[in-house]
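sry for the spam today, last one i promise. struct tokens for design, 223 residues
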């Protein structure tokens, strides 16, 4: 890393490959910027170690169209010439995030989600639940000779779990059987193929249990 860098940017959870940072990168005095969209509100976040955090609401907080930005005060007020006003954080801060007409419905739904998170016991409680869900699925994948997860154990995402079948020719049959059982959107991203289970906050433990039971059954019938 160059010591004169303006900032260091990282994506703290990557959805396609299923990779997650489980600790904050150490960048010394260089401002650290995080795209936390895909695991925002899934666990506590060390805000003080960042210069800026931004996250779309659409994974864990509410409908698409709403973005959260947490920025250190000393980093605002230096927008480049030509920056759209909606992206000038000083103008937004001075206007209490009401510089323009906000996404009212998305904000309302996010407010309901925040109340739900509190009812669950807060972010620490959600993190424990997300660890439980991820462990359930990864433990099965690690015990299987038919399914495989390609990510190193220490880098695995709790939110997005990619996996492949021993015989890719069975992908279609696996997806069809899953859909018949009420489990949809399991097809992996087109750039990597395979399967991908996204187990965001809204997915209950029972949903992951149902997936694992189906995978065990599918393996028994096709291994």
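last one done:
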């Amino acid at each position: 890393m160059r010591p004169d860098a303006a900032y260091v940017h990282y994506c703290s959870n990557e959805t396609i490959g299923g990779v997650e940072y489980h600790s904050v990168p150490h960048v010394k005095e260089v401002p650290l910027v995080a795209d936390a969209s895909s695991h925002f509100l899934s666990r506590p976040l060390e805000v003080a170690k960042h210069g800026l955090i931004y996250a779309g609401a659409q994974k864990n907080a509410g409908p698409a169209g709403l973005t959260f930005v947490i920025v250190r005060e000393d980093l605002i007020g230096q927008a480049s010439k030509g920056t759209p006003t909606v992206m000038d954080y000083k103008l937004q801060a001075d206007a209490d995030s009401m510089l323009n007409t906000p996404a009212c419905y998305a904000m309302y739904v996010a407010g309901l989600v925040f109340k739900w998170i509190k009812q669950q016991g807060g972010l620490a409680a959600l993190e424990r639940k997300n660890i439980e869900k991820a462990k359930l699925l990864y433990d099965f994948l690690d015990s299987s000779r038919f399914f495989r997860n390609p990510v190193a154990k220490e880098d695995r995402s709790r939110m997005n779990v990619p996996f492949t079948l021993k015989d890719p020719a069975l992908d279609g049959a696996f997806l069809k059987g899953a859909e018949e059982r009420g489990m949809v959107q399991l097809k992996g991203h087109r750039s990597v193929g395979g399967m991908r289970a996204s187990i965001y906050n809204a997915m209950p433990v029972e949903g992951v249990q149902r997936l694992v039971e189906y995978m065990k059954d599918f393996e028994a019938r096709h291994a």
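Helices lie at 89-94, 104-120, 123-143, 171-180, 205-222. ok im logging off now
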